Amino acid sequence: MEIGIVGRALSGKTTLFNLLTGNSEKTGLAGGRGTSHTGIARVPDDRLVKLAELFHPKKTTPATVQYVDVPALPDAHGHEGAMNLAQLRTMDALMVVLRAFENAEAPHPAGSIDPVRDLVHVEEEFLLQDQMVVERRLERLEKDLKKRRAPELEAEKEVLERCLASLEEGRPLRDAGLDEAARKLLRGFTFLSLKPLLAVVNLDESRVGEDPFSEPRWADLVKRPQTAYTSVCATLEGELAEMDPADAAELMEEMGLADRALDRIIHASYELLGLISFFTVGEDECRAWPIRRGTTALEAAGVIHTDIQRGFIRAETVRWDELLDAGSMAFCRQRGTLRLEGKTYIAQDGDVMHFRFNI
Ligand SMILES: Nc1nc2c(ncn2[C@@H]2O[C@H](COP(=O)(O)OP(=O)(O)OP(=O)(O)O)[C@@H](O)[C@H]2O)c(=O)[nH]1
Ligand SMILES: [Mg+2]
């Protein structure tokens, strides 16, 4: 599962990517335009921290999210360059960085700061690309339908016509009211405006802590489905990352900040990808495992190892907080909070699972 980072030139994509992943790619005008980078962010999880305090494992392994910094394609004239749409199509979700900071050394390509305009700018390109794909396919379908009336082609045509209507109105496919069946039918097209979107406003240092979305121009945008909005000040996050944790906490309190913006971005990314975590615990390792919402116990076992899936007998399951409260799996069993779940049980966020298997 990958999240592609997009946005206009010099919006802070690579700066944020570095902060999220701990990589150190070049930023600013020296940044290598056209080269994409991949990195991994650990998903902060208090539940895992508490479980590790109980078990004192040799190793604690958080869930991760993979980010790809997808810069614009190099432009021979030194202009902004076109988005790398082919690479964006392969992503599971997109994070668009919207510049709201002033920086004279790295001027905004449009000459002024306006995050709403930039979101529309990026989305319009997605809409245009998707519209081209839909129109081309519809043309082909019309031809095929003249030769042969097939119900599956009729169904595809009906869904694509709905898509076209939405795109022509300027509404992303995310917001076209498509049901699960329609989405399944569209999967192969890798539509950009159908991908879950996280919009991140990169605030100026002077405006840290402000809510940029209270401005009326955001009102309609923030209501869109499968779209999440958050803000960050990349410069401040960079400074916090360099400080020791106690000093960082003090500075955040002084500034009236309740949580770390980077944590918020990672959590929002995880949720946008439709991921939840189950845990495995023990003296060797406490670990959070990412699974899609709706994953069965049998599939969850397969995430750990195919052998465990193959030899699946049952999953001894308890909620993380019930385990903490009881202090051990054995006490959970005594209290009756430990459940024996079968193959079809739908794993829940925060479940601690111990798989019994036999191969
Ligand atoms: N003042 C200020 N400067 C920032 C902030 N975030 C990024 N910058 C600066 O803005 C410039 C551009 O940042 P990058 O991270 O390289 O932006 P980018 O979107 O990756 O740029 P391209 O890949 O060239 O499109 C760099 O000089 C950063 O140091 C911020 O929050 N405040
Ligand atoms: Mg960059």
Describe the structure.
There is one protein chain. The chain is 39% helix and 21% strand. It has helices spanning 13-21, 46-55, 85-89, 115-147, 151-168, 180-186, 234-242, 245-255, 261-272, 297-304, 306-310, 320-326, 329-335; strands at residues 2-7, 37-42, 59-61, 64-69, 93-100, 197-203, 227-232, 275-280, 285-292, 312-319, 339-341, 351-357. The strands form three sheets. The protein has a six-stranded mixed sheet with strand order 2-4-1-5-6-7, sandwiched between helices. A three-stranded mixed sheet has the order 3-9-8, sandwiched between helices. A three-stranded antiparallel sheet has the order 11-10-12, with helices on both faces. Helix 2 runs parallel beside helix 12 (320-326) and helix 4 runs antiparallel to helix 5. The chain binds guanosine-5'-triphosphate and magnesium ion. Guanosine-5'-triphosphate binds at residues 7, 9-15, 27-28, 31, 33, 71-72, 101, 103, 106, 202, 205, 233-235. Guanosine-5'-triphosphate (GTP) is lined by residues 7, 9-15, 27-28, 31, 33, 71-72, 101, 103, 106, 202, 205, 233-235.
